[in-house]
Amino acid sequence: MSSIRILSDRVANQIAAGEVIERPAAVVKELVENSLDAGATRIEVEFRTGGRAYIRVEDNGAGMDRNDAQLALERHATSKIAEAADLDRLSTFGFRGEALPSIASVSRFELQTRTAASEVGTEIAVNGGRLLHVRDCGRPVGTRIVVAQLFNSVPARRKFLKSDATESAHIIHCVRLYALACPQAAFTLIEDERPIFRSPQCTSTAERVAEIFGRQIAESLLVVDLEEAGLRLRGLVGRPGVGRATRHEMITFVNQRPVDSRTLSYALIESYHEAIPKGRYPLAFLFLDLDPAAVDVNVHPAKREVRFRNEVQVRALVIRAVLESLREFSRVAMVAPVGAPPGDRLAAIPAAPAAGAAPESRIAAPFPAFRPALPRGSGAPDGPVISSRDPAPAPVPGPDSAPRSPAGWRYLGVAHGAYVLFETEAGVVLLDRRAAHERIWFERLREQFAAGLVGTQRLLLPVPVELDAIASALLLDRLAFLGDHGWEVVEFGRHFFRVEGVPEWMDPADAEPFLRDLLGAWRDGRLATKDLDLARDELARLAAARAVRMPEGAGEAAMLALAAQLFACRQPLTSPAGRPTCLELSHGELARRFQK
Ligand code: ADP
Ligand code: MG
Questions:
Q1: CA 297 to CA 300: how far, in whole Å?
Q2: Could you give the 3-state DSSP secondary structure of residue 338?
């Protein structure tokens, strides 16, 4: 083995770059943070091809003189802290003095900067960590940094980059975070010569949210503001009932720094326990301010994670503050309902033809859930129903432990409105109503999708939907796919869309939230339309989860019909999400449990 050596700065920088600069968005993050630290009130970010080819960040901050500019490219050169204890008083985004040298070591890097005290600016060019030149340049006060050919010299890293669209989504998200964190600065973001957003200086977070996420979202938010024992939580959260399928819109900041904090997100999710259905995520833009000494930001190289000295206190504050806003809203809403009343889903949907109508009508309105509810106790079927024309459910062979065809099952009752108990030849079966319904819907929808038979209900009042830049790009790409599956969505302005028709199975009131869910799934890559079958499965899964509404009435006939329909499915034993639909306790199992 060779002897120990100190690494050259160039190599050390490239290694550090591996930690700090994992992708183009990380470059943007570091540069924007530097601009904000330099007191900029105007920041412009431009990038091309997901940031690989070109990133430019330009600000009107304090700038650097020649000496500082050269120092800034040295390892561990920072103007922000002098000793470790300063970390506890940190009021800037940066402090490690690693970003600029790291970025310059893995790109073609050009810095132009000028302070107010100097007539001329300084330009420094570096390629892959090697200095190319330092010279005078003309420029306004402030700093402009261009990072080109990122990772060209580090092929291993290049390989880890995702598609341009993904890298671009990360950059957009990143700039948005800082725009939210600092509404007092004007932000411009340009991708491939197309402006993604231009937000002037704003006086409030609410204004900024409206600027970059759209007025529609901004108007559905509640103000949170609570201060307690030196901690302050402020920001905006979604109204009760406003949930998202993904965590993308749960955005948290600690002392202005965008962070991922388990403590904060769990507390937030918990606060919405009763306000949105399980498995959905709240919408939130929350800012926690506390003594810098009470939080450790130096846990992760990219500083995205933080640790609180007093997790319990932070958690309690979040829950209290959010619950207070939610309750206050509900109190006010009780007096004067805001938005659409939680109307009866059935009332909003045209009644399907009565039994006995011409057979074609079954294609137009195949989902019996649309039938007006019959009075309780009339034996009205519960949700999907087998009409007299439906073929008798074929017995489904299953593994030995699985319950078989429901022929001959005896209905015993329903527990908690959710579980149906049957006596069977082999023992007893417990059926989860919701899971069963989801399975039935899922298979019907999938069949319809495959057969191209999805009808559209035209909406009398089109539903306007305003999206952010990423979501609207996704949607534009997929209008045809949606069109093939019962949607009529038209673009009618930048980031504005109008839903003019929805699939027949859908409650029009669900149009907007469902569309947002779909976009969330697309963003997560769960609905890649490249593989049509998979995309349809996912669409059917999301749709089934949404479509199921369980009528309260649960008579014997309805429950037997439900079981029969479930077992007519191809995969009756699990819900589309993979949860069991039913449990069987065999005679043997019962005897064992009772120790007979
Ligand atoms: P850090 O931000 O951790 O100090 P960086 O490598 O990001 O380290 O930057 C090094 C130094 O360069 C900063 O401390 C700051 O003094 C200076 N600097 C970087 N970017 C700018 C900018 N946009 N305007 C003014 N000064 C800057
Ligand atoms: Mg920095």
A1: 7
A2: coil
pLDDT band at 546 (very low <50, low <70, confident <90, very high): confident
What is the model's pLDDT at position 386? 32
Q: What is the pLDDT of residues 482-535, one digit of tens each?
A: 998 999 999 887 788 999 999 988 888 888 989 998 888 887 777 766 677 778
* pLDDT for residue 97: 75
Count Cβ neighbours within 10 Å for each residue of 507-534 and write b for 16 or more, e otherwise: bbbbbbbbbbbbbbbbbeebbebeeeee
Q: Are 306 and 299 in contact (CB under 8 A)?
A: yes
Q: How many whole angstroms separate alpha carbon 265 and alpha carbon 250?
A: 7
Lowest mean pLDDT segment, chosen from 121-125, 372-376, 499-503, 508-512: 372-376
**27, 34, 118, 126, best to mutate for ligand 1 pocket (most atoms within 8 Å of CB):** 34
Cα 20 to ligand 2 centre (Å): 11
* H or E stretch at 286: strand 284-289
Shortest-distance Cα residue to atom 7 of ligand 1: 99
Report the candidate in 47, 166, 159 with the shortest Cα–Cα distance to residue 473: 166
Q: Write the DSSP symbol of residue 4.
A: P
Of ligand 1's listed atoms, the one at least distance from the Cα of 61 is: 24
Ranges of beta strands (E only) in 425-495 are 427-432, 456-466, 488-491
Check residue 371 and give its pLDDT: 26
Q: For the purposes of burial, counting CB atoms within 10 Å of the CB of 77, is it exposed (0-12), middle (13-18) or buried (19 or more)?
A: middle
Query: SS3 of 262, please?
Result: helix
DSSP single-letter state for residue 260: B
Query: What single DSSP character describes residue 23?
Result: S
Min mean pLDDT across 313-322, 506-515, 548-557, 570-579 is at: 548-557
The one-character DSSP state at 508 is G
Spacing, Cα 119 to ligand 1 middle (Å): 21
Mean pLDDT of the chain: 80
8 Å CB contact between 500 and 448: no
Q: Which amino acid is at 476?
A: L
Comparing CA positions, the residue from 227, 302, 226, 224 lying closest to residue 259 is 302
| The two structure tokens encoding residue 577 | 């999400």
Q: Is 118 within 8 Å of 65 (Cβ atoms)?
A: yes
Quick one: which H or E segment has residue 242? none
Which residue has tokens 């947002």? Answer: 516
CA pair distance 241, 591, nearest whole angstrom? 45
User: Among 33-42, 374-383, 402-411, 484-493, which range has the highest average pLDDT?
Assistant: 33-42
Q: Where are the alpha helices (DSSP H) in 384-468?
A: 433-451
Nearest ligand 1 atom to the CA of 33 is 2
pTM of the model: 0.65
All residues at 6 or more sequence positions from 505 whose CB lies less than 8 Å from its CB, including other chains: 367, 369, 370, 441, 445, 486, 543, 547
* 80 or 208, greater pLDDT: 208
What pLDDT does 376 receive?
A: 30
